[in-house]
Amino acid sequence: MGNSYAGQLRTTRFEEVLHNSIEASLRSNTVVPQPVFAQLYLETERPLTQNGRTENDCDDDEGEGSDSNSPPLPYQMKPPPEGSCTIDGFCQAGRDLRLSSLASASLDLRTGFMLVGVKSQSLQDNLLVCAVDHRFLPDEQGSNALLGFLGNCVGCGQQGFRYFTEFANHINLKLSTQPKKQKHLKYRLYRNNNGVLARGAPICWRGHGIPVNTGPPKKRHKGWSPESSTNTVSENSAKPSAQLSVPQITSGPRAEIETPLSSSQGSLTALSVPGLSVIVPEQLLQTCRLQPVIFKGHGSLPQMMGNTSDVLVSSLLHSCFLSSQTLPRVYQHYGPSPIQPLSTEMQILLTVYYLVQLGPEQVPLIEDLEQIFMRSWRESHLSEIRQYQQPQSQGRHYGIEAPPVVPGVPHHLSLPPQGQQPLTPSQLPWLAQLAASSCGEGLIVLGEQVSSLAQGLQLTLTKLMEGQLKNTCYVVIIVTQPGQETQSCVVVTGKHQCRALAESMFSPTEGLKEINQQLSTGFAQELIQYCNVLGQDGDVDSLLNGATLDGNALSPITNQESSEKNHKNTPSPKDKHSLKDSPTERSKDLPRLKERIHSLKDICTEYFVEWREVRPIQLAVARKLLSHVCAIADSSTQNLDLGSFDRVSFLILVPPSEVTFQQTVLHLWGSGVLRELGGLDQDCVCPRDVERYVVKMDGSAQAQIDRLIQEAHSNSYTLYILIHDHAHWDVSSATYSGSDCGLGLVDQLINSRLVRDSPNILILHVTSFPFALQTQYTRISPYNEIHWPSAFSNDVDLYHEKTRYFGVSELIESTRSGGSLPLMRYDTSFESMTTALEERFPRLHSAVIRTIVLIQHYCIALMAASGRINSSHNLHKHTSVETLEIVQSLLTAAQQCPAHHGHMVLLRIPSLALAAWAHQRLSRVRRRLGLEDNFEIILGNPNHALNIGQTFIDRIKIWLKIEEPDWIPRTYLELEALPCILILSGAEPHGESLPRSLKYCDLRVISCSYLQRTTLEQELGLAAYLVRTEFQSPQNNGSRSDSLESDAEKLSSSENEEDEALCNENSPLSSSHQTQSCSDNAVVDPLPSQDILSTNVQKGPTDTKQTLSHPQTQLVAHLSSQSFPCPQKAQHQSQSPCQIQPLDQAVSQQLAVPQAQTSKPTVPVLPQCQKSKSSSPDSRSSSPHVSCSWARGVMRPPSVLLPRALYDIITASDSSGLPRCTSFLPHISVAWASSFRPLLSKMMTCTEQSLYYRQWTVPRSYHMDTSNRNESRCDNFHPRRLLLSGPPQVGKTGAYLHFLGILSRMLIRLMEVDIYDEEDINYISQIEGVQHQPINPHWPNTDVMRTMPFDYNIHDPKYEDISAVYCPGYNPSAEKPQIQQEEVYLRRRTSRIKLSKYAAYNTYHHCEQCHQYLGFNPRYQMYESSLHAFTFTHLLLGEEIQLYFIIPKSKEHYFSFNKHGGQLEGMRLPLTSDWSPDSIKSPIFTPTTGRHEHGLFNLFHAMDGASHLHILVVKEYEMAVYKKYWPNHIMLVLPTVFNGAGIGAAHFLIKELSYHNLELERSRRSEGGGPVGDVWPFIILADDSCVMWNAVDVDEHKYVCEPLEHSVSLKQVLQHMEACPDITHYSLCGIRKWSSRGLTGFKQMGPFSRGHLHDFLLLNVDRSQKVQYDQRRFTCHDVDFTLRLHSAGLLICRFNCFSVMKKQIAIGGYRTFIIKTKMTDVPTSVGPSQYVCAPDSKHLFLATPAHLLLEKYLQHTSQKLFPLSIKNYAHPVLSVDCYLNLGPEVTVCFVSPRPNAVNITTTGLLFSGLLLCFVDSFVTPSFLKKFTFLKGATLCVISADRSSLRHTVGRLELEEEWRFRLSDEFQTANSKEDRPLFFLTGKHI
Fold first, then answer.
1. Residue 1565: CB atoms within 10 Å
2. What is the pLDDT of residues 1175-1187, one digit of tens each?
3. Phi, psi dihedrals of residue 285, rounded to the nearest 5°
4. What does each C-alpha distance from 594 to 21, 529, 604, 607, 848 come to in angstroms?
5. What is the rounded distance in angstroms from the CA atom of residue 924 to the CA atom of residue 918?
6. What's the pLDDT at 1517?
């Protein structure tokens, strides 16, 4: 149960020892300090205990000061200088240092120093304040403290104390022991909210900040004391095994860890027993053939003397005892608690119980013992635990429940409840001996017969030497002396247990170094020679030398000529290493080999390969990734502004494995992502072109990461995705990792400040085992985790998957079926042989023994199966049945297939040295047997590329029909169907994916010492498969295991898994984010098939099977990226009855799979496999007569062979029903936060597992997240970091590659907007008599414009549903169907247009350039603005109008204020003659409603940096929300009475306010003596949906050419219009509305025209002063205003060379009208006929403005009101001085009654109706008599009330020509208080 070497040498550096020696000389003149080198080589590290202190450190006891077990050193302080102060609490200068006195004092603290509280023995209730350089203090984890001391006195100010001894004298500590900063610097001090200095957190002195090396000592010394070095396993060495996975006692923020133990709780304080020692006998290891392991328990171990190198001492059991006595913080919040931890006696007794029930071959696991302690404690305090857990049930806390029984304890032994019958020390020995009696000699308890641990240990070693403990595995020594605390220790004496525990003390790196040393020194040669001898059958080498090719020999797979040729010209790569044939020789050999394999007898009718496509579940994961990215962008933190990016770039980081690097390159190249992102040219020729996007995390990675950072800083508009694949591989801290090992590079690069602070770099961690990234200090938010959906749901198929993941849980399930041979098993004969050899060779590492035996088995099996050894030799008895089966299958598979397809055998050997030896040995045997052409032997070294023999390369090229002469396979996936043995080496897999032809996964050599969850699951993940859903594995005929039954019930059980099938948490090793080892390799499939073979199993990377519906098909390469320079489409023979088609277009669009661009194939596709019609794909998979063994093999997952110890662990279950290994430490770099943690629950989802590990694990000191701790907050998550986890080889690579594609498309879409793209309506090419402008003038000519006729036709498509304005000479088009306005709005045509750099933006745009514009001005406080009232009188309204301006401080310079009271006087206006290239003269007014988020008010980019005055015109009830979203914009707030008004009221007030301000400005300038008439009179009225502006490129000399349009800034448009020489002569100017077909009539239209203007207006408020907007209007107000402006003789000009683009905004706006009743606020369906009613009638009143009801009524009921006008353009309705929309079927003729009005000629025109709306005095009876009406024409008179209506009828003498009825009077459906409008209708007589 341990992995630390007690007895290691002291590893402090020479500088520290020298410093200590100097300091010791300063402490005392009487004690001679120990020599420096003696300290370096003889002393040992002190053990660490609770709170990070040493066992000899105590808070209150000053009497213990020595590092060793010797008595405390006497110490005498130097006498103080004469006259100095010696009062406690004061320094020698007489200044007060007490915290109580200095709490409120102002202290001068130098930079880099911090205030620390010093504990004085004479001042128990107070602290002394001192200033210490923070570099000499530890961090929160007790690390990184420099040696030495540097302090200042805060009292007298004296500085520069370099030694703590000197400083202690100065502050009068008056100590009896040696002053040590670790003992007396106790607390950090801080100032609280009141500014008072207060005591803070304790200083965590832990190991003195010195990395501790727990490796084996290089030397031992006779005087070495094991007690002083039985420290807890150092975090600085990788703690490998589950036997070592002790809950780490950390100094984290957990109160239960920091609570010191009381003596009543069984204190584990080390006791020094002088005079007692143990002498280790000489030749102990040689005599007993084992190295006993001593587990320190309670009390101090005696000093070990003599041959100490033959004994190992571990403190893991001691640490387990200690952690199990530290109560959780939850039980300390309720005052005095009755809950007590387990007593010392109970811990010892439970340990005995646990050891008793272990089998003779089992190794004790610290996790099991720890769980036994916890369950016993819970059972003893069940009622109290439930009482305290009840208040916690409201929050998310994993409660601790007591199981019904305590596993690991015999049922006949009852556990006394601790609260009722406490176990006494006197009862312990005989109870322990009683328990041990049940197992005979297996366990011995030494209790009453020994009086000390030293006596017990000496007796044990003596018996061991005498052979009395041959059948004993454990000796438990218990010492219970009266008046003393109980002491104990455990001595492991079992050979198997001792070896396992000894090897587990190595870290993985140290274990591999030990193996290499044993091989390099020839230490293993004796074993090799021993295994080479076969007894009576001779030896292996002699048999190989005598091998002959007899009749029973295995035939080579090639003909004799080929064999001789290859033997002579193609040396084996195993003999010549990297030697390869030249391209010329290979090209010569290729046609001959092609000709041979193309012969009829070499055609395989069963061979098929498949393309991989993006599966639905991968699409779902990619979209989930995208949604998380969008969630980050949408959060209020503004950590990611997606709207500011226009493209995506990325970099994929992979472990330093050449195969993994190449396979990622191939997936990336074949996915088409780079073309979609624009990162790859169309003429790419090979995957090498994309290598710059993939980085191996080795020494070369630094430069590429730096390049990415530089690009990110220089390209702020590019979003960089940093994908960290296989993210669990390197989590080491850069500060703790050496440069030689290559670890810590990820921390150095990804966690650097430059990457962390870059706003356009997003990090995506991708891993199968996320546990190391899910700790208390993780950088990844739980909301940013994406878990792979489970494919195990039989009831709900959310993703329509055709595959089911076959992972570790299925492997475990196959062991429980009992119906057939399980897929996962162990080899009994192999285990028996290795066990015997381990006893024979005790000094050899077990990995060396197991590897040599296994390779010997393979060699003998090859000799037996080849048939080339004399049959008289009975070779099969010298190998195992499993190995013989593997070899026979390997050799016979290629013989059965005409094309020599075969299987892959994976041989996993972690040690590179052992793997190289195994490769050499197997290659030699293969060569001696003449089997070089039958199968390949491949050494999979992560540091080197693949090395394949040329014969096999040519064979693969023929299968894949590759004609490139230099092509070689670079990934294991390209070895599909190649018969081979792959020796996969390396400490752990690095993400290499394996082909579907893998049949056997031989893991018999992997280590059993390092039992972390990640280590186990990534080894087993090599056998992961995807199984067709219609396939039922032969091993799964029965019901599925319990671990899978509840999967369907766990769907949507967490926030992160709302739409995903459940992660299979019940399985111990196959939960969706647990069982992953390699990269996931699904890429976009450009050529999927429409039909599916019934082939059921596929290897992980081949995610979906490509199959054909007819037998006569042409096969294609199984990797889209392995044989073609670009993704290709298959070429099919014309006679093939079924052609392979690309993805269905509908499905492709639905799934958003980008179509990979194809180019002309440069390489043909695979050879066609001819088959008969009866040999369909369906029959191929099920027919018993399939000849190709490979085709049969791909129908089932591979078999897995494990060591017996691992098999027992994996297949065992705990009390929760999960495999026991799930309770192991999740990763070697993390530690348990507390022993009082619950077990993983069977029903936990992936998200809940993540929360579990986040709560119960902490990173070790060498973990890269250790530094990610912030005391001021509960988390320290990186805002732009995500984690994608899923099972190994399930398709994560394909998912995140597809995510890159859809992210790029989304960014493009974010940069695009829906622009209204409609052709002008009512357009005629040219009216005769029109005078043209000169060719391409820059500005309009006023004289020409006056002669140009006014175009009465309305051309804006948004007004397609309104009444046409009568225009003489215009012939309307064919009749149009009646269209509802809502339908027009919904069906208006739009186009997706990418935003230009001059676009206007809404509130979601947050680029860095806009920060100051939006209110992030460093000169002003955000939201700092003031409210100003502005009042003016308007004659038309007859009352004063009071408006309010909200003016930010940064915009006050645009206004003038009263000098005395600061009252707003008006807006400052420039002069007409003023001009500046960086400013706009005209104020911009934008009326808006309901669009505080979506209105395009950000004109920063549109103005291109020009200064401008922009005012938002808002309604009063919306003022607050607009101010919130646009804090730096000026707001004009309309009066309250206009809250229900329409756009007409807004424009009316803007115009009148601007004119009033113009007069004020003229007055101010007149008072100042300036010119009055030169003030700039223009304003801009802009719609809130104007997004971009364009200009037409027309050249004066090229006007005959078709004009082009390009995007320009609003600044350019306005400055061009404002610069017009005669601009002040125009009353209204505007620009054209953009259309993609708008330039077709540009030549006929001319650069300028007169007509209706909309949306973007330049209004001259001076010239148009007498014409006002109608403030009552809701619709068509601009048409009405333009017609009245033209009739007044004012000049209107449209600049056709400019156009405005309007964005479609479906939210808000002035066109959004809600008709609702007075009874409820809910919108009600009310027909237009209900908008009006008869006066004084009982009618349903509507809560809608009266004028809006009138406008809507006239629009929808004109066919009833004006029946003669329907579709009668020649007889329009006469509308006097007002335009109202009467519906699209009615034509309106507008006339003005004012003097000198410009009207059309109406002579001879018969009108079908007359509309009089609010007529003024200019309308007279004589004026009306000028017009002629049809008989029966309709009259409609509208007034504000009934009296004015009757007055109008009488004044205009209407009754003379019009007939009225009493029933023809109506009012709008408004109540009296809402002031309804009245109208009267009549008929012409």
1. 17
2. 333 333 334 445 7
3. -65, -40
4. 79, 44, 14, 17, 43
5. 10
6. 94
C-alpha span between 1684 and 545 (Å, rounded): 114
In single-letter form, the type of residue at position 1636 comes to S
Residue 76: what pLDDT?
A: 66
Contact (Cβ atoms closer than 8 angstroms) between residue 364 and residue 241: no
How many angstroms from the chain centroid is the CA of residue 1457?
Answer: 53
For residue 813, pLDDT beyond 90: no
Phi, psi at residue 408, to the nearest 5°?
90, -5
User: Of 186, 199, 200, 178, which Cα lies nearest the Cα of 138?
Assistant: 186
pLDDT for residue 1204: 92
Tokens of 1025: 């498969």
- Kind and range of the H or E run holding 853: helix 846-866
Residues 6+ apart with CB under 8 A from 277: 302, 303, 304, 305, 454
Alpha carbons 1124 and 1116: distance in angstroms, whole number = 11
3-state SS, residue 1532? strand
The DSSP 8-state label assigned to residue 1487 in this structure reads E
Calculate mean pLDDT across residues 1518-1525.
94
Res. 202 pLDDT band, cuts 50 70 90:
confident
Pairwise CA distance, residues 297 & 299, whole Å: 7
Could you write out the DSSP letters of every residue in 209-231?
G-----SPPS---TT--GGGG-P
Q: Determine the Cα–Cα distance for residues 1266 and 732; give it in Å rounded to an integer.
A: 10
Scan for tokens 């009188």, then name that residue. 1433
From CA 1263, how far away is CA 1228, in angstroms rounded? 10
Report how far residue 1474's alpha carbon sits from residue 1459's, in angstroms, rounded to the nearest whole number: 26
Packing angle, helices 658-671 and 1292-1310, rounded to 10: 40
State phi, psi for 305 to the nearest 5 degrees. Answer: -125, 165
The C-alpha atoms of residue 1381 and residue 1748 are separated, in whole angstroms, by 14
pLDDT of 689-699, one tens digit each?
Answer: 789 899 999 88
pLDDT band at 1157; cut points 50, 70, 90: very low
* Cα distance between residue 546 and residue 1370, in whole Å: 110
* 85 class by beta-carbon count within 10 Å (0-12 exposed, 13-18 middle, 19+ buried): middle
Give the mean model confidence (pLDDT) for residues 117-131: 85
Average confidence score pLDDT of the chain: 77
> Where is pLDDT greater, at 294 or 136?
294
Are 1239 and 371 in contact, with CB atoms under 8 Å apart? yes
The full 3-state SS of 1277-1334, as one line of letters, equals CCCCEEEEECCCCCCHHHHHHHHHHHHHHHHHHHCEEEEECCCCCCCCCCCCCCCCCC
Residue 709, classed as helix, strand or coil, is: helix
Cross-strand partners of 1660 = 1578
Alpha carbon distances (Å) from 800 to 671, 797, 804, 1029, 1044: 22, 5, 11, 10, 19
AA identity, residue 357:
Q
The answer to whether 1010 touches 241, Cβ cutoff 8 Å, is yes
Cα–Cα distances in Å, from 926 out to 547, 868, 940, 981? 11, 11, 18, 11
Of the chain, the end-to-end C-alpha distance in Å amounts to 115
Percent of the chain surpassing pLDDT 70:
72
- Find out whether 1095 and 1181 touch, Cβ atoms under 8 Å: yes
Q: Which residue has the tokens 């591999």?
A: 512
What is the helix (H) or strand (E) element at residue 117, kind and residue range? strand 113-120
Is the model more confident about 923 or about 243? 923
Residue 1736: pLDDT above 90? no
pLDDT at 1229 (0 to 100): 92
d(CA 866, CA 934): 10
Distance CA 1844, CA 1850 (A): 10
Instruction: Please write the tens of the pLDDT for every residue from 596-646.
Output: 444 434 667 666 666 567 788 889 999 999 999 999 888 777 788 887 888
Tokens, residue 1517: 């009830």
